[in-house]
Design goal:
The protein has 489 residues and is of the alpha/beta class. It has 15 helices and 20 strands. The longest helix is centred in the middle third of the chain and has 18 residues, at 171-188.
Length: 489
């Protein structure tokens, strides 16, 4: 009998150590000073001006590129002073940049700028900087900054290019609309949960039509949808997939990012919880095979209680919640309590394992039927009511969930019922995860091979002729290649 345990709240370990703190500085209408004229100076001036600053540049011998910056400023203003700087020039400066080749002159400027209360950057001298510049993706007012702390600038530029390709240029119009509409939305929706729900709908619409500039009709439609949306909490049963976080569906990601509370099982990969918003509560309601487990009634009661208090609850399950995930019991509990409940399907363990191995679960010559069965009943024993005639058919691909304790008895019974002992079979441990491991054998010998391997972790069994086609193809290829060599090919 399983040892009962109670649901318990868990906490994220928080951020990993940060090499630098990513912050954004507002310079619109403020004064900035750059002194010197080394190689990166002109570009820094353009950045300051693009942020709306009034930039005074002091350089005794400005480059031609620097001479052109006042005319090229897309915002703010740039004034070039062809003379040396003085401490008085730094009065009232919010930001200052040292662009000198000489270390001593650079340090002198940095000291004067700090004394004047300015934030300081020194080009190519990180030890003198208060802040540093990184690679920038500009969809202003959406701005993405990327830093490698100077360790790998080319790597940072490559990351920037990748993000540039992922962010449609039209997002700038949607973010600008959000800025323009925020006061009206805040005045209409006083509760934080209502405002968040509105902006989630806004974001969904922006991602659906990123290249179209939003108009007033969009705001009206979003307000109408928000005003008519059901009030109160709800529950979403979400499939986390077998382990690889990249197998999450987009709908699962949206559910995680909007959840107030996430109830998750032991088998959910920890990195999947990283996709949840920082403010979400996470609660372990672990159900492990034959190990300490929370009672299903306690999980159902917790889901209903949280939803009744107005929370958006995600019940996060490994694989697909509709495949041996007790989804039926949880759906019934929510419906009986009058709680809105939805299901977000996930990649099943069988699909993930087959894809990771590069095998097909069906094949028109070897397997026209696919069946999923559970390896144990409520007592943890081999179920009495399995269809043994179906399990003994080698032309069917059979996938057995939760098989470890009953594997030997299950296969022995299937062989006794007529399954050829030589039928291809395998067990996949930790499917799609970095520590995935596979044990292959004939059905009659698989249990012995698994026990000898001594592997741990969630496991899934596959049996059927379709699984042997990959090994057969490899053997044929191995035989053919030496023959081709002998033929001089």
């Amino acid at each position: 009998m399983r040892t009962p345990r109670a649901p318990r709240e868990t906490r994220s370990p928080g951020l990993e150590p940060l090499a630098v703190l990513p912050v954004f500085v507002t310079l619109d209408g403020k004064r900035a000073v750059l002194a010197g004229a080394n190689g990166g100076a002109a570009w820094k001036v353009k950045l300051l001006a693009a942020a709306g600053a009034h930039v005074d540049v002091f350089a005794t011998e400005p480059t031609e590129e620097m001479r052109g910056t006042p005319a090229e400023a897309v915002a703010g203003r740039v004034v070039l002073h062809e003379r040396d700087w003085s401490p008085a020039d730094l009065e009232g400066a919010a930001f200052a940049i040292a662009a000198f080749e000489d270390e001593g002159e650079c340090a002198c400027f940095v000291g004067a700028a700090r004394a004047a209360g300015a934030i300081v950057n020194a080009i190519d001298r990180p030890h003198l900087c208060d802040v540093s510049f990184g690679a920038i993706v500009n969809r202003s007012p959406l701005v993405v900054g990327i830093s490698t702390e100077g360790a790998a600038p080319v790597f940072g530029q490559t990351v920037r290019a990748r993000i540039e390709a992922m962010l449609p240029s039209g997002f700038k119009a949607w973010v600008a609309a959000a800025r323009d509409w925020r006061a009206e939305v805040s005045a209409r929706y006083h509760a934080f949960a209502e405002r968040r729900a509105f902006w989630e709908r806004f974001t969904d619409r922006a991602f659906a039509e990123p290249e179209r500039a939003p108009v007033r009709a969009d705001l009206d439609a979003l307000i109408a949808a928000s005003d008519t949306a059901p009030a109160g909490g709800n529950v979403a049963l979400v499939g986390a997939g077998p382990g690889d976080a990249e197998l999450l569906t987009l709908k699962a990601l949206r559910a995680l990012r909007s959840a107030d509370v996430i109830l998750y099982d032991d088998l959910v990969a920890p990195e999947i919880l990283d996709y949840a918003r920082r403010e979400a509560r996470t609660m372990l309601v672990g159900k492990t095979g034959h190990g300490p487990s929370c009672r299903q009634d306690d999980i159902n009661a917790l889901m209903v209680s949280l939803a009744r208090s107005g929370k958006r609850v995600v019940r996060l399950k490994s694989g697909d919640p509709l495949v041996f995930g007790r989804a039926g019991e949880e759906i019934d509990a929510c419906r009986d309590a009058g709680i809105p409940v939805t299901v977000v399907p996930g990649v099943t363990a069988a699909q993930g394992a087959a894809a990771a191995l590069g095998v097909s679960l069906t094949h028109r010559d070897a397997a026209r039927r696919l069946q999923y069965v559970t390896g144990h009943d409520r007592r943890g024993a081999l179920p009495d009511d399995l269809n043994w005639a179906a399990l003994a058919d080698p032309t069917v691909t059979t996938v057995v969930y939760m098989p470890k304790r009953t594997l030997r008895a299950l296969l022995a019974r299937a062989v006794a019922e007529g399954l050829p002992a030589a039928t291809p079979a395998l067990v996949v441990f930790n499917a799609t995860r970095p520590d995935q491991a596979v044990v292959r054998a004939e059905a009659g010998d698989l249990a012995n091979r698994v026990e000898a391997a001594g592997l741990e972790g969630p496991a899934i069994v596959m049996v059927g002729n379709a699984l042997g086609r990959e090994a057969q193809a490899e053997a044929i290829l191995a035989e053919a290649l030496p023959a081709a060599g002998r033929a001089g090919l």
